[in-house]
Design a protein that fits this description.
The complex is a heterodimer of chains A (229) and B (322). Chain A is mainly α and 229 residues long. Helices cover 74% and strands 0% of the residues of chain A. The radius of gyration of chain A is 22 Å and the shape is globular. By secondary structure, chain B is mainly α. Chain B has three domains: 77 residues, no CATH class; 81 residues, no CATH class; 126 residues, no CATH class. In chain B, strands 1-2 form a two-stranded antiparallel sheet. Chain B is globular. Classes of the chains: A mainly alpha (229), B mainly alpha (322). At the A-B interface, helix 1, helix 2, helix 3, helix 4 and helix 5 of A face helix 1, helix 2, helix 3, helix 4 and helix 5 of B. Chain A: This is DUF969 domain-containing protein. Chain A: Keywords: Membrane, Transmembrane, Transmembrane helix. Chain A: InterPro entries: DUF969 (IPR010374). Chain B: Keywords: Membrane, Transmembrane, Transmembrane helix.
């Protein structure tokens, strides 16, 4: 067994830990691992080029930018905030938990591309969340706003991840089934997808509780500011 | 017929436009970065077709292009262009346009949803409107175009204004946009170089696996750790299954394959929430949302990941050896 290619992993760990620019770190790691595994330079270049262009779907989100940019210029975020401020019963926790549920249900049906950081979080969920947080704590500073946006993005990720595994025709389930078929164990996709349900429920409960705790933290800060005033 | 390749050409056109605009503004490094990337996107189909036919040269040139991007990336300063409208102007526009602004924004998820659900039925004679593979993503690309046209109509501005705004956002995201592709490519290089097999060998050689619970813990934590390193649970799964799951847990300790597979994969998903290597979920959103800390999203979801892992592992341990 050739252990030298593991140095590529070390390049990644050191590079990320020292906060170097991630792009060259990743490329250097690929070159190190490839060369130490004995690939020739032409083969390695071809492998790098082919792997890169075969992953082009990962840049698809940039196509949302013109429409979102134009709408933001026309005041989309300001409108989302003003509208949110008028909805008395929609608290921050209800907004985020509602979004989590919707995102998870859509992913359960295999519709993961429908929502996301570019499609829904930046133009809609984040500004609405900021307005909802402002109803609790009127003077949000820059750090608070960034934390709120991060929580919104995290909620989006968790909803997607722990919904998509329940969908039978999507990558994860088919990968598991394919692996077992290769090794002589026959399973139906449904039998696998069913066992993702307990975690889907657990993930929903855990993230909902954390959202609620986050809201309570804001409320407590608001209360203590009021007491001091 | 609309295919995912059309979306790639659209991206290539947008990237080349961004490069050209940066060139005109005198930002040479930004211009070079987006133009190289745009060329890689535009030529992607040709490169893959030539590789499949046994001609490696285009792919090798693409490989050099990737290295060129790596050299250019540190030179891009995250210079957010000044917004060309004041907050006051945007607020006035928001008041004037009201809920009409939501329309185009909601069109993106809505059109994607419709194409994903019904795209397969749109057949005129023998002519299918959408290609079967990657239909949802093709739908997303179409939805973006429709939303842009609708947004231009609602805001009464030319469509090109939207493309210019998009370029402003793209420059603000900068090189972070590239990371998901690079990390996916790195995953493939790692697989070809035998990194996964080497880690699995070390894990099985040095860790206690005689006891069923200990073996299960090694398997679950291995899924998390391996996903953190590779940035993707799909890369970790076959390695951990072949190393520990199948020989030890299923064959020796009689674990239930469906439960082990499904819940083991979900342990890996918890790792995805923790790693900068999963750039498309963790670093790109941080850049899109203009967080100063690139690890802000990971920080926000880390404890969720820990608790979800703990509950999944407990359920797996209770159920898998029934």
């Amino acid at each position: 067994m050739n252990y030298w290619p593991l140095l590529g992993v070390a390049v990644i760990v050191v590079g990320f830990a020292l906060r170097f620019n991630a792009v060259p770190v990743v490329v250097v790691a690929a070159l190190v691992s490839g060369l130490l595994s004995g690939l020739s330079v032409p083969d390695l270049l071809a492998l790098l080029g082919n792997s890169f262009v075969s992953q082009r779907m990962l840049l698809l989100f940039v196509l949302t930018l013109p429409a979102i940019g134009l709408l933001e210029r026309a005041g989309l975020r300001e409108h989302a905030q003003r509208w949110m401020a008028r909805l008395q019963n929609l608290t921050l926790a209800r907004l985020l938990v509602g979004y989590l549920l919707l995102r998870q249900l859509l992913a359960t049906m295999g519709l993961t591309g429908v929502a996301g950081a570019a499609q829904t979080v930046r133009p809609l969920l984040a500004p609405m969340g900021e307005a909802a947080a402002q109803k609790i704590l009127p003077r949000l500073d820059q750090g608070d706003r960034e934390e709120l946006r991060a929580v919104a993005a995290a909620t989006d990720n968790i909803g997607r991840f722990f919904g998509e595994d329940v969908f039978i025709a999507l990558g994860a389930v088919l990968l598991i089934q394919g692996f077992y078929t290769q090794h002589g164990i026959e399973l139906s996709p449904l039998a696998i997808a069913l066992w993702a349900l307990p975690t889907a429920v657990a993930a929903f409960i855990i993230q909902s509780v954390r959202i609620w705790l986050y809201q309570r933290r804001l409320q407590r800060r608001a209360a203590s500011i009021e007491r001091d005033a | 017929m609309l295919r995912i390749e059309h979306a790639y050409w659209l991206i290539a056109a947008f990237l080349l436009y961004s490069g050209w605009r940066n060139l005109r503004d005198g930002h040479r490094w930004h211009a070079a970065f987006w133009i190289v990337l745009g060329l890689l996107f535009g030529a992607g189909d040709f490169i893959l077709a030539q590789s499949a036919a046994g001609h490696a040269l285009p792919a090798q040139i693409a490989g050099i292009g990737v290295i060129a991007l790596a050299c250019l990336a540190p030179r891009l300063r995250r210079q957010a262009h000044p917004e060309n409208r004041t907050a006051e102007q945007r607020l006035q526009s928001a008041i004037a346009l009201g809920h009409r602004l939501f329309g185009p924004a909601l069109l993106i998820p809505l059109v994607t949803l419709l194409v994903a659900l019904f795209g397969g039925y749109l057949v005129i004679g023998h002519f299918a409107l959408f290609a079967k593979s990657q239909m949802t993503l093709t739908g997303l690309a179409l939805a973006c175009v429709i939303a842009l046209l609708a947004a231009a109509r609602v805001a009464r501005t030319p469509v090109l204004e939207g493309v210019a705004e998009g370029r402003r956002l793209l420059d603000a995201i900068g090189w972070a946009a590239l990371l998901p592709l690079l990390l996916a490519a790195l995953g493939q290089v790692f697989t070809r170089s035998g990194v996964g097999a080497a880690i699995a060998e070390i894990a099985t050689d040095f860790l206690p696996t005689g006891n069923a619970t200990a073996a299960l813990a090694v398997f679950a934590l291995g899924m998390v750790l391996f996903t953190v390193i590779m940035g993707n649970a799909f890369a970790a799964f076959p390695v951990m299954m072949a190393g520990i799951g199948l020989p030890l847990l299923i064959h020796q300790h009689g674990a239930h394959p469906a439960i082990l597979g499904a819940m083991g994969m979900l342990c890996g998903y918890c790792g995805t929430l923790l790693t900068p290597m999963a750039a498309d979920f963790n670093l790109v959103p941080a850049a899109l949302l203009e967080l100063r800390n690139p690890y802000g999203v990971i920080k926000a979801q880390a404890w969720s990941a820990v608790w979800i892992f703990a509950s999944t592992f407990t359920m797996m341990w209770l159920l898998v050896f029934r």
